[in-house]
Write a structure and sequence with these properties.
The protein is built from 8 helices and 7 strands, in the order ββαβαβαβαααβαβα. Strand 2, helix 1 and strand 3 form a beta-alpha-beta unit. Helix content is about 40%, strand content about 15%. The protein is of the alpha/beta class and about 250 residues long. A 7-stranded mixed beta sheet has the order 1-3-2-4-5-6-7, sandwiched between helices.
């Protein structure tokens, strides 16, 4: 991310799928917490969140790797599960995903459970229950038509313009959106926690809690945190998000 908050295109720079945020060496036996990014621009925010979390357990981030595994969700899920099992072969695994990373975390949880692993906690932070074709097409068009202009002018456009520039210029977000466009969530037998931002109130009908309840066959809990889709993961609101996760991590079985 540059000084304007814009994430450069990394298509020619190797990027690992798994990033240690709290290394496993020297910590306890509690299962790891794995955070799935929406794109590359979230890694710094997730690092800040990881620092605020209490407890003695390793924390990792999963981000779109370069070179990419394939153009579909299945290839990304297989890569993420492989990287995670290489670090922690036996599980169990606690998963957290933000935005489109939440949808990817859901597919990762399904894959892990299908293979016999336990997923005692699945946290979806303002995550869509699917990526529509119109949204994916609009995102590609925005990258093609406005990406360069927004990147050049992000600073003078203020905070809203910088958020828009991050969304459009983030190649990792684009990779997840394109991979998830044709992926339909199948029923999941486990539980899930939906963490939803309080603001703005007009956005609540679009937060898709009802859709998630139709897919998740276990218990679906909902927690509200301060901020909006972007600010809930950043100071000062990230402290409240960390407190929410601390409560749930302490309550989840190992």
């Amino acid at each position: 991310m540059d000084a304007r908050g814009v994430v450069p295109d990394r298509q020619h720079v190797p990027v690992p799928a798994l990033v240690p945020l709290r290394p496993a060496a020297g910590v306890g036996d509690a299962p790891p917490l794995v955070m799935v990014t929406a794109g590359y621009g979230d890694l710094m925010a997730l690092t800040q969140l990881a620092r605020l979390l209490k407890g003695d357990f390793p924390i990792y981030a999963l981000q779109p790797p370069v070179p990419p595994p394939s153009s579909d969700a299945g290839g990304y899920v297989a890569t993420y599960v492989g990287a995670l099992r290489a670090a922690h072969p036996d599980g169990p695994y606690r998963l957290f995903g933000y935005s489109t990373g939440g949808l990817m975390a859901f597919f990762i949880a399904q894959s892990l459970v299908t293979s016999g692993a336990r997923v005692p906690l699945l946290v979806l932070l303002d995550a869509p229950c699917g990526i529509s074709r119109p949204f994916a097409a609009a995102h590609r068009a925005a990258r093609r038509l406005l990406g360069g202009w927004l990147t050049r002018n992000a600073r003078r456009l203020g905070s809203a313009g910088q958020i828009a520039a991050r969304m459009v210029a983030d190649a990792g977000l684009a990779a997840h959106v394109n991979a998830l466009e044709h992926a339909t969530p199948a029923p999941y037998g486990g539980d899930a926690l939906l963490v939803l931002p309080e603001a703005p109130r007009w956005a609540r009908p679009f937060q898709q809690a009802g859709r998630w309840r139709k897919v998740v066959r276990g218990r679906v809990a909902v927690d509200r945190v301060p901020g909006n889709h972007n600010s809930c993961l950043r100071p000062p609101h990230v402290a409240a998000l960390a407190a929410c996760l601390d409560r749930r991590l302490g309550a989840a079985p190992a």
